[in-house]
Design a protein that fits this description.
Layout lengths: L1 E6 L4 E6 L10 H5 L12 E8 L5 H5 L7 E5 L3 E2 L4 E2 L3 E2 L2 E2 L11 E3 L2 E2 L8 E3 L1 H7 L4 E3 L3 H11 L2 E7 L18 H5 L5 E3 L7 E6 L5 H9 L2 E6 L14 E4 L10 H12 L4 E4 L1 H10 L3 E17 L8 E12 L8 E7 L5 E6 L4 E4 L14 H11 L7
Parallel strand pairs: 3-4, 4-9, 5-10, 9-12, 15-16, 15-17, 17-18, 18-23
Antiparallel strand pairs: 1-2, 1-13, 2-12, 3-13, 6-11, 7-8, 14-16, 19-20, 19-21, 21-22, 22-23
């Protein structure tokens, strides 16, 4: 069957369905996948249509909670060639994915590789999407669609059946007016122990964390106290050496309790580090403002320059997935821009001039993408473990 992507500006793009879509119980495709769904008229999914330019790493991308509420367009022409690895996990931490489920609302690609080939592959892309009930469309000129999004900026859209058509009174729900972080954050505290003796303990505020961040801490010998997005640090009984604020979906202005938590940690002179949404929340807690980017940064090859330590002489290739940024002009006295995006000049990291508070907009833990900036975890751990002084 064919499906249609309708954008809020009235653009309609038709392609072939290859993921989940409600069918009758007699559908051979759903029987093969072990799923029986009753037919459902006027079914649709909607969200914010964004694009990602990564060539590989789709299992990690799909399971990144920061994509909550979004319909993802992949610019690389063929997707699914190496399949999907086994969904193993230990104590709720996936070994290969960035969470235990897919968070996209929908997927748009050019071509599906139907015969995957990789020694770790356990299933094909279509089965993966059907299992997690994610609608998908193939046979679309995704690069042309991406050019449209670059000219106009991200747009709201919905995936519907081919016979549905756009109308001026059609409703498009905006996920950014919702507290998406509350949907992906854990509901209770969990303590994770590294192998061997812990070198430090971090209170981790989980706003929709990528599991590779947790793995990065555990592999470095850090004990992790994983907390919900709205946790009150003043009531935490366990001792800890620093506070970490994670990535997550949506508008940072929607997580006021997280910003209040960070303000409290600042008043206590805690060692603090943030990534992605955590960087935006740090900016808000410091007194700065954030704004929505025209089409965001979503790829595994965004160039970032450390303008403090390297004096603009070194460029790091980074993995990114965000739609908001800190407004440099609103940073208060005592704060400096740490990293800057080499493409558009936007803020990619901030830090305090004297306090042990710093954050980056990109993902030093990668997955997918390069690990050029993985050293930032070591710097944060050094701060927690020893002098509590700010980085370099």
């Amino acid at each position: 069957m064919n499906l249609k992507l309708i954008l809020k500006d009235g653009t309609e793009i038709i392609g072939e369905s290859f993921g989940y879509w409600p069918k009758t119980k007699s559908s051979p495709r759903f029987k093969k996948a072990g799923i029986g769904q009753p037919s459902r008229r006027h079914f649709f999914v909607d969200g914010e249509v964004v694009f990602n330019t990564g060539m590989v790493g789709y299992p990690e991308t799909f399971t990144d909670p920061s994509y909550r509420g979004q319909i993802l367009v992949l610019t690389y022409p063929m997707i699914g060639n190496y399949g999907v690895p086994g969904e193993c996990d230990t104590k709720g931490i996936s070994k290969r994915f960035e969470s235990t489920k897919i968070h996209l609302r929908g997927l748009i690609i050019s071509e599906e590789c139907e015969k995957e080939s990789h020694w770790e592959s356990k299933k094909g892309l279509e089965k993966f999407l059907i299992k997690h009930k994610i609608p998908a469309i193939k046979g679309v000129d995704t690069r042309a669609l991406t050019q449209k999004l670059r000219e106009h900026g991200v747009m709201l859209g919905k995936i519907v059946e081919e016979d549905e058509s756009y109308s001026k009174d059609m409703a498009f729900s905006d996920p950014n007016i919702l507290n998406l972080v509350a949907e992906v954050s854990p509901k209770k505290k969990v303590v994770l122990q590294p192998k061997g003796r812990a070198v430090a303990t971090v209170a981790l505020i989980d706003c929709g964390i990528k599991h590779n961040i947790i793995r990065a801490f555990l592999e470095r010998g850090v004990r992790v106290i994983r907390l919900p997005w709205d946790a009150d640090l003043s009531e935490l009984k366990e001792k800890y050496d620093g506070v970490f604020y994670s990535n997550g979906p949506g508008d940072p202005a929607m997580v006021k309790k997280t910003a209040e938590s960070l303000k409290w940690a600042m008043k206590q002179n805690k060692v603090i580090f943030g990534i992605c949404l955590g960087s935006q929340v740090m900016g808000l807690a410091a007194g700065a403002k954030t704004y929505k980017l025209k089409y965001g940064h979503r790829s595994a090859n965004q160039p970032c320059i450390d303008i403090i330590n390297d004096k603009g002489q070194r460029c790091y290739i980074t993995s990114q997935n965000h739609g908001y940024a800190v407004d440099e002009k609103t940073l208060p006295k005592g704060w400096k821009v740490w990293f800057r995006n080499a493409n558009d000049g936007t803020v990619e990291g901030i830090r305090h001039v004297s306090k042990p508070w710093s954050s980056v907009q990109f993902h030093p833990e990668a997955s997918p993408g390069p690990e050029d900036a993985a050293y930032l975890f070591d710097q944060f751990i050094d701060q927690m473990s020893f002098t509590k002084k700010p980085v370099r």
